[in-house]
Task: structure prediction
Amino acid sequence: MTPSLCETGRLCARHVAGLLQPPTPATTFDSMETRLSSYSQSIRWLRQHGCDCREEIAVFEETVRLYPESYPGKWFLDSLAEMRKEPGEDAK
Result:
C-alpha cells in the first residue's frame, strides 16, 4: 500500500458517499445497496492493506443513515462498524 494509493482511495470513497446520498426522502436503501456495497468492498480492501479509512467509513455510515431504516441498511451499517475496528480488536 503506497501513501498515494491510500490517499486516492480515501478521496474517492468520500466523493462516492456524497454522490450516493438519497435523491429524495422516499428513496429506499435497497435501491442503492449494490452501488454502496461495491465501494465498501474497495474500502475494506484498502483497510486490510493498512490504509486508515475510518473517516471514510464514518462518511458512508452517515450516507446510509440518510435512507429510511431497513433491515438491509442495518446489516450494511453493521458491516461498516466491523470494518472500522482495528485488527485484533474482537479479541478484547
User: Anything to note?
Assistant: The first helix runs from residue 3 to 19. The CA atoms of residues 4 and 10 lie 10 Å apart. Residues 3-82 form one domain.
